[in-house]
Design the sequence.
């Protein structure tokens, strides 16, 4: 760290005037979906960002820190999803003769992309700056909720242009533009749209752009040629001011002076170009770049202050960057007039809440949404209302599995909107109809056409001869049914509670005592042959396990860990088996399945970079050995998170990787969302104050914590001696404190009372 940077950190440590200054936006999983969505307001609709690649499947957020060139700057981005999409409407400043194709990283001179240097690049929450080496143009970006500003400073007098490429989308080499349209509205305004057949199969997005200086000349380019007026023999007329097609660009041409600044205000809408213009004018009525940047920075400071911590500069940078990631998605989806495009592709009016989009529920139900339920109640309520509207708009009456801008993309497994609803309801989130929400969760869980549900309801497991990923689906359905049961109990639905709790025990049906692992069964009750718990999919060429092995997924019984301990043979055997996961020698097949970055996230066969592992370390606490959890948690926090590029050992997956870190640093984790307790691991910071949505504060302190003092010696919860590794929600919800004394050796008398609180 430079002396200047250190002085800046010391100033912040003293006063923390701007928590957003701790955010390092380039943190991500290097070479694998680097999480850099660009300047955005918290949970914003628009994220203006540099794109370094559009066709590499792994560059799903558009920006890869190790790439040598920048294509341009587009308006929407995902946040470390593992699959590419968005990257809508690329803006490219150029000097001299404009290019209309991208070129390549090896030969950027063949197109509009440009080399750049990280030494001439800067980023912070709500701001980005870079100098493009080809043109010498300095580009700055900032954004609000639905609109933002691109500021281009041109280096010399001469011919200059700003091109908007409507064909650009982060496509992973697979997606396509089905249709697009550009319209020159007046001398300094352009609008347009495109329909993308991508990860989201039918995604409409509109944009509006206003330029601070009227165009010297404006052209719509189709197939690399300017569109001109032309009357045909049959009297058809083609305008040069409004063009539809599949390969369109808009070119604003200027004669610039040295150092001249041209700004472009931009906004997006899923509804219409008119709404995009309305979003633009409502949010940015002037041309004050600095004011918008400061407004967004203030919004980030306010949101980041929901948790205030003590720690080293590096700890603060990692923590607040994680909180920044957790507050990027889901994204606002309603326009300023309350309209949005629904799952049925009709235009709807949201009433009394904001509609949100980008629900990566297989990831985020685990810790991201439980975090929002505690400190972002209004947004979590709006998100629950959003997924309920999705249910109403679904022709099959299903809650979302993975929703993206009015599309269901059917990615991953489970019906994990149910625990998001149940956990929110049971944690006191208000503002949604609980009966309506429960009915939607139950209907989704009982839909016989949903991924093996009919067989699951009949047999008690998903059979592998009828459904892929049957082992994982059985386990995840059982957990989801537990969540529904807890909500049923709270609503007084006794019969439903009994039914879904019985179903929540279905995990026992696929536990194979001969191998000691979960193992797929067919519809006749026969075990899968050629089973290998340590191979991806459950064996060579098998597809029983989702993104992993049975040795990783067999721990997925968060709703009944004591029952799982009983199946394994008691606490001692459970711990021995859990140790074996971390001590395992990885097979060559296992290593071949994972990227180099994924392998960095592995401890033996424990794979922290993928979400099914996120609760596993905390299982030591159920078996009465929380000191082993403390060791592993410290190892993961120290080696698999950080504040530099490439710090994450896997995709952030819309905030889930970051939410794990946030909870873990505070010393507890929601192993079983929709339950009434958290599991205490070991704190990773000296102090954290959580500002709950109800106005109360819950404070964690860890006395004597250090790199060596990682073990809990004792704890006091709300003034009481506390020897349980579980933190009841009732002890947290009204504020209070938990105080840990830390030491360099395990106190094997602390936390051995592994009885889950009633």
Sequence:
């Amino acid at each position: 760290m430079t002396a200047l940077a250190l002085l800046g950190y010391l100033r912040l440590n003293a006063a923390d005037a701007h928590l957003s200054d701790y955010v390092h936006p380039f943190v991500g999983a290097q070479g694998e979906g680097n999480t850099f969505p660009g300047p955005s307001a918290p949970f914003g609709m628009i994220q203006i960002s540099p794109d370094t690649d559009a066709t590499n499947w792994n560059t799903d957020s558009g920006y890869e820190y190790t790439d040598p060139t920048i294509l341009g700057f587009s308006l929407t981005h995902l946040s470390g999803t593992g699959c590419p999409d968005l990257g809508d409407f690329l803006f490219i400043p150029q000097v001299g003769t404009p290019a209309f194709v991208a070129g390549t990283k090896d030969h950027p001179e063949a197109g509009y992309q440009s080399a750049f240097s990280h030494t001439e690049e800067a980023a912070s929450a709500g701001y980005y700056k870079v100098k493009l080496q080809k043109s010498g143009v300095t580009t700055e970006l900032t954004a609000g909720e639905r609109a933002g500003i691109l500021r281009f400073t041109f280096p010399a007098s001469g011919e200059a242009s700003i091109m908007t490429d409507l064909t650009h989308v982060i496509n992973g080499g697979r997606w396509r533009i089905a249709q697009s349209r550009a319209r020159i509205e007046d001398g300094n305004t352009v609008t347009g749209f495109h329909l993308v057949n991508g990860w989201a199969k039918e995604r409409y997005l509109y944009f509006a752009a206003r330029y601070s200086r009227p165009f010297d000349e404006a052209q719509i380019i189709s197939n690399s040629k300017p569109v001109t007026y032309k009357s045909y023999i049959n009297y058809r007329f083609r305008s040069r001011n409004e063009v539809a097609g599949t390969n369109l660009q808009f070119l604003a041409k200027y004669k610039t002076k040295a150092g001249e600044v041209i700004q472009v205000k931009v906004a997006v809408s899923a509804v219409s170009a008119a709404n995009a213009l309305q979003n633009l004018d409502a949010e940015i009525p002037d041309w004050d770049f600095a004011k918008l940047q400061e407004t967004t920075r203030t919004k980030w400071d306010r949101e980041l202050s929901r948790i205030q911590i003590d720690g080293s500069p590096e700890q603060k940078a990692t923590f607040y960057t994680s909180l920044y990631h957790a507050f990027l998605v889901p994204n606002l989806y309603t326009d300023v007039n309350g309209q949005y495009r629904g799952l049925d592709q009709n235009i709807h009016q949201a009433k009394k809440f904001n509609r949100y989009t980008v629900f990566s529920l297989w990831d985020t139900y685990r810790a991201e949404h439980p975090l929002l339920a505690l400190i972002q109640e209004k947004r979590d309520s709006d998100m629950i209302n959003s997924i309920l509207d999705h249910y109403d708009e679904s022709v099959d009456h299903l809650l979302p599995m993975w929703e993206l801008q009015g599309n269901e993309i059917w990615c991953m497994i489970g019906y994990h909107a149910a625990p998001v609803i149940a956990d929110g309801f049971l944690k006191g989130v208000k503002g949604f109809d609980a009966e309506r929400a429960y009915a939607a969760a139950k209907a989704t869980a009982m839909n016989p056409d949903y991924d093996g549900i009919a067989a699951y309801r009949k047999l008690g497991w998903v059979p592998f001869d009828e459904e892929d990923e049957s082992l994982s689906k059985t386990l995840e359905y059982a957990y989801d049914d537990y969540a529904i049961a807890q909500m049923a109990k709270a609503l007084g639905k006794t019969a439903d509670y009994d039914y879904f709790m019985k179903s929540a025990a279905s995990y026992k049906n696929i536990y194979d005592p001969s191998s000691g692992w979960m193992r797929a069964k067919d519809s006749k009750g026969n075990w899968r042959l050629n089973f290998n718990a340590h191979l991806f999919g459950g064996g060579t060429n098998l597809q029983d396990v989702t993104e992993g092995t049975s040795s990783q997924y067999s721990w997925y019984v968060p709703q009944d860990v004591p029952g799982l301990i009983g199946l394994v043979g008691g606490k001692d055997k459970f711990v021995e088996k859990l140790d074996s996961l971390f001590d395992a020698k990885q097979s060559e097949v296992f290593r071949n399945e994972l990227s180099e970055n994924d392998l960095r996230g592995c401890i033996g066969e424990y794979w922290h970079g993928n979400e099914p592992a996120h609760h596993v370390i905390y299982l030591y606490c159920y078996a009465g050995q929380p000191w082993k959890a403390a060791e592993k948690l410290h190892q993961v926090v120290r080696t698999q998170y950080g504040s530099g590029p490439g710090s994450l050992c896997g995709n952030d997956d819309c905030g889930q990787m970051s939410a794990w870190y946030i909870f873990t640093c505070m010393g507890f984790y929601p192993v079983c969302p929709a339950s009434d307790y958290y599991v205490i691991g070991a704190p990773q910071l000296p102090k954290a104050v959580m500002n709950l949505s109800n106005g109360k504060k819950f404070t964690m302190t860890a006395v004597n914590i250090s790199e060596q003092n990682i073990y809990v010696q004792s704890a006091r919860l709300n003034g009481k001696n506390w020897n349980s590794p579980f933190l009841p929600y009732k002890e947290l919800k009204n504020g209070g404190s938990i105080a840990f004394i830390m030491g360099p050796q395990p106190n094997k008398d602390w936390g051995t009372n592994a009885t889950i609180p009633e």
